[in-house]
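Comment thread on ticket #2218

A.B. wrote:
> Attaching the input chain for the structure job we discussed in standup.
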Amino acid sequence: MPKGIVSSNLTASAKFIMDNKKLKYIEKYYLNNYADGDVDKEIEAVGSFIAKESAGRVLDCGCGPVPQIYAIFMPQMKELYAIDLPQESIDFVKEKIALRGKWYQTFLPYQKVVESIYGVQPESYILKQIEKIKDIQQADMTENLPFPDEYFDTVISFYSLGCLNNEEELNKAIYNIKRVLKTGGKLLHINTNGKNSNNELPAYTWRGLDQTSKLIKKYLKNSGFNIISEKQVDLFPNKDSMYTYSNISLLKAEKL
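C.D. wrote:
> Ran it. Output below, let me know if you need it in another format.
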């Protein structure tokens, strides 16, 4: 067999193993943290935060396998767009959306969080929220965001800005977010005080940037954002074998 074919086959095999590892991670992350629809202290804190602060056209920047779930917490949202680095996340979400009739009732406890703020919602509320999702696509926030300038009223980073390799990547990501966010628009960032505790997980899930809360605030200010508020929420020790953290921060910034 020609050497080039052997090399090509090995490359394809390695890619299959890596892609399969990503898919297993995505499925495990979903099952460990969301599949049962329970509202723990973290989900209640994050859900209440974005329920109050997100509005208009929203971008979920680094969505993972769950934009269809966090959409439940955004009653003031008009449209939702989402991007993530691995294509496996995008495929997982699209499948979940296609099958929403089979699982949406599991997340009625999430609707109750919204109702505690805005009052009783219609029976069709969750399905209507999922219908607001307009596009989900693969993209790297450190390279480019495939949207026009000043397109979004709200950009949300669910932990994703803390999953970067270095300060250069963080600076690029914040620059890209600023470009697509309207003047006066809000960036909502949820961050943890932990790091990836499992070296077997795909590297993109937590790439090693330290002191993320401090650095994120630094680069937001340097990029022309006003930090409006930051709230710390202490949690019970996370028993998930994938990650270890005991605190999250809920940060709200405005593009000046």
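A.B. wrote:
> Thanks. Noting for the ticket: The chain has a mean pLDDT of 87.
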